[in-house]
Write a structure and sequence with these properties.
Elements (H helix, E strand, L loop, with lengths): L2 H15 L2 H7 L1 E4 L23 H6 L2 E3 L4 H14 L7 E4 L12 H7 L2 H17 L4 E2 L23 H16 L11 E7 L18 H17 L4 E4 L3 E2 L2 E2 L4 H11 L5 E3 L8 H4 L5 H11 L4 E2 L3 H11 L5 H17 L12 H7 L3 H14 L1 E5 L11 E4 L24 H6 L7 E4 L9 H12 L3 E7 L18 H11 L5 E6 L15 E4 L7 H9 L66 E8 L3 E3 L3 E10 L5 E11 L10 E10 L4 E9 L5 E2 L5 E2 L3 E8 L6 E8 L1
Parallel strand pairs: 1-2, 1-10, 2-3, 3-4, 4-5, 5-6, 6-9, 12-13, 12-14, 14-15, 15-16, 18-26
Antiparallel strand pairs: 7-8, 11-16, 17-19, 19-22, 20-21, 20-25, 23-24, 25-26
The structure holds 1-deoxynojirimycin.
Length: 726
């Protein structure tokens, strides 16, 4: 018998034996601390409710959220199998977002690397560490497209571009799951989230309403989820928000018609934490029973951390509110995933205390975390300050000078204590007598004494390095800010330092694009480090001393001020674009007090060397549906050090049936060049890449003129044109 048939046989037999109660309990997911065998209180990432469920329900439940380490997970599973009548093992799921114990840069930083190979490697390592610690499924990748830096969760995404997000989505899924997650116990199943459009909450406030046209949804927000599913992601998590007026977790059009029927996804769908019950405050369910009915009918198989399913589905079936077949469908999918992951044969799967000891946070993993951290930092400004000279006396000042809060949100298994701090990194580069460290202030408070010490330290130095930023709790889930500047006390510290008239380099640790007024204009150099992870200090020191040349490019625009938000590169033109930029011209689409353009555009990032683009060409000025055109450019490293450049290709459809973005990223290539070296980069463009959703939502292209842009970011570069002929 074929393996798939055997799987189906076991699942079918189990389903036949299960009571309705047992089936319903499979649909519940609780945190690890509910289980016998768990060691302590686990991670709480949402509101805790009184669940009102019996011990028996827990014994019959299907999956667990969390669990910290092989020992605990093995003991939970062992205890569970003693009490579960049919011996159905638990699925262990956890948020392994950017590493398990070896913490990689946060996803927005990984997005800044434009390096999908390393992104995949980071997910592979995260999967290995998590799987030996007993995890079966990770709640990642999060592929929500974002345009609003007030939203704290932008740091969990790879930014504002649908194409780039899709590339990273695929890379993360490949890394987590490998070729075949079934056979590979060193990998974990991926759960793509948050379906759908969670990244567009009104006002950048978490859990808030999302409202957009179906065309916008399909064109910008859905492609990255689809890419993750095409790459084989086994699970989908719902979003907290509404999609066209209906919360995603009860949205039949979204979850059943689109995800299951149109896209053919037949894996497990899990609600986000409490999202089924939240249909009540959303105002689309009068009570828990109605919420449960809507969730199940929408096709949500597992309810996370609330108990509306276990408390109501039985009665709903008895009273004919839902059919038992709907429950069977969900249970079948959950059992199939357990079967796929081999849990019936080996309920502990990869969990292995000894391997955990050996592999987790290994030297090899940390080296890759360091490499990715160097590639994820973005040099935003440099007026002849960086790289630093090893003979210079350095004053390292600021709340991140000696601070383990460099892992970023969602690094619950990582250790801040073991993270390399910035001062520790710098000490490996220079004679420690040439380094003087002062905190200057805390993240959002400070004393005169702290400032005085910093001034004293800085006055003896040749160069001031300021390590500034946001505490990691200022971003991440529920970490939204209406004012996205650095806290005032840090801006004041910059001013104090400026008075000393010494060169200043600022290194930023933060989870979102900030309004950099008071930073970019004051400093001679600015390096955006985001949250670099476990190897932060080593990576930052490598960059500051030029052992590695910065090569990151922004995956999200940095607004001029919060008043511009949302500001993103691939916007529409409007009927009154501000072409002349003339104060005398009033009736155009603009602000009176600030520019339309962001302070730093998508795709922007500097290097210690310079690159020159030349001879940018297009192979033909016409394209047909059965041909392709080649766009090529030459790029030369015109500076003195080796470096990497991300060459970017954008396209604009000049006349569409519906309005089109002024630019859309269609390709990119990261090239390494030694000083004086010249390389050719080519991109291929086909008609298929020019398709978009029309007024009737058909996915086609428009014949007519297109402009192509090739350059170092979304603003600068050479322009070429061609015509699409049908
Ligand atoms: C809520 C978050 O929105 C989601 O991303 C996460 O996976 C779950 N909590 C579980 O921790």
């Amino acid at each position: 018998m074929e393996a798939k048939q055997m799987t189906d046989v076991r699942v079918t037999k189990l389903l036949e034996k299960m009571t309705l109660d047992e089936k319903i309990d499979q649909l519940m997911q609780l945190a690890a601390f509910f289980y016998d065998g768990a060691s302590s209180d686990g991670e709480i990432t949402g509101p805790m409710e009184d669940l009102g469920i019996s011990k028996q329900t827990i014994h019959n439940s299907g999956s667990v959220l969390g669990g910290s380490g092989a020992k605990e997970v093995i003991s939970i599973q062992k205890e569970h199998l003693k009490t579960n009548r049919l011996g159905i093992p638990l699925l262990i799921m956890a948020d392994i977002i950017h590493g398990f114990k070896t913490i990689f840069p946060v996803p927005l930083a990984i997005g800044s690397s434009w390096d999908v190979r390393l992104a995949e490697k980071s997910a592979e390592i995260a999967a290995l560490e998590a799987s030996v610690a007993g995890v079966h499924v990770t709640f990642a990748p999060m592929v929500d497209l974002v345009r609003d830096p007030r939203w704290g969760r932008v740091m969990e995404t790879t930014g504002e571009d649908p194409f780039l997000n899709g590339e990273f989505a695929k890379a993360f899924v490949r890394g987590f799951q490998g070729e075949n997650v079934t056979n590979d116990t060193n990998r974990v199943a991926a759960c793509v989230k948050h379906f759908a459009a969670y990244g567009a909450p009104e006002g950048g406030r978490d859990y808030n309403t999302v409202n957009m046209s179906e065309r916008d949804l399909r064109e910008n927000y859905l492609p990255a989820y689809k890419a993750a599913l095409d790459a084989g992601a086994q699970m989908v998590m719902t979003a907290f928000n509404t999609v066209d007026g209906i919360p995603a977790s009860g949205n039949e059009k979204l979850m059943r018609e689109l995800l299951r029927d149109e896209w053919g996804f037949d894996g497990v769908v899990i609600s986000d934490w409490g999202a089924i019950k939240e249909m009540i405050p959303h105002g689309i369910a009068a009570d828990e029973s109605e919420a449960a009915k809507k969730g199940l009918k929408a096709g949500v198989d597992i309810e996370m951390m609330t108990s509306t399913y276990v408390k109501n589905l039985q009665t709903l079936v008895e009273q004919g509110g839902i059919s038992e077949e709907l429950i069977n469908e969900s249970v079948r999918r959950i059992l199939q995933l357990k079967e796929k992951l081999g849990l019936f044969e080996n309920p502990y799967r990869g969990a292995n205390e000894q391997l955990e000891e050996e592999l987790v946070f290994s030297e090899e993993h940390r080296q890759i975390a360091c490499e990715l951290a160097t590639k994820s930092s973005v040099l935003l400004k440099n007026k002849h300050v960086l790289p630093l000279d090893r003979e210079q006396k350095v004053a390292l000042i600021g709340p991140f000078a000696h601070n383990g809060d460099v892992l970023g949100p969602w690094s619950w298994a990582g250790s801040r204590e073991n993270a390399v701090k910035v001062d520790e990194g710098i000490k490996t580069k220079i004679d420690p007598v040439n380094l003087i460290v002062a905190q200057g202030c805390d993240i959002d408070t400070g004393t005169e004494e702290q400032v005085a010490k910093a001034v004293q330290a800085a006055s003896t130095a040749d160069v001031i390095v300021l390590a500034l930023g946001e505490r990691s709790e200022m971003s991440g889930e529920a970490g939204c800010r209406a004012d996205i500047r650095l806290p005032q006390v840090q801006l004041d510290l910059i001013k104090e330092m400026k008075k000393l008239t010494k060169p200043i380099a600022i290194v930023l640790f933060n989870g979102r694009p900030l309004d950099l007024h008071g930073v970019l204009d004051q400093a001679d150099a600015v390096l955006e480090a985001w949250y670099p992870g476990s190897e932060a200090g080593t990576a930052i020191a490598d960059l500051l001393y030029g052992d590695v040349n910065p090569s990151g490019k922004l995956p999200m625009s940095f607004p001029y001020s919060v008043g511009q938000v949302p500001v993103y590169y691939n916007h529409y033109n409007t009927g009154r674009p501000d072409i002349n930029k003339s104060p005398a011209e009033r009736y155009v689409s603009k602000y009176l007090d600030i520019p339309n353009e962001p302070l730093l555009p998508f795709g922007f990032g500097l290097s210690y060397t310079t690159f020159q683009y030349s001879d940018t060409k297009i192979s033909s000025d016409t394209l047909t549906s059965d041909s392709e055109i080649t766009i090529s450019t030459h790029i030369t490293n015109t500076g003195n050090v080796a470096g990497e450049e991300v060459v970017q290709l954008y396209v604009r459809d000049m006349v569409g049936e519906v309005v089109r973005p002024i630019k859309e990223l269609k390709g990119y290539e990261k090239v390494h060049l030694n000083p004086g070296e010249k390389k050719e980069v080519t991109f291929i463009l086909t008609e298929e890449q020019l398709r978009y959703f029309h007024a009737d939502l058909s996915f086609t292209s428009d014949p007519g003129k297109f402009t192509v842009f090739v350059g170092p970011n979304s603003v600068d570069g050479a322009e070429l044109t061609f015509e699409l002929i049908n």
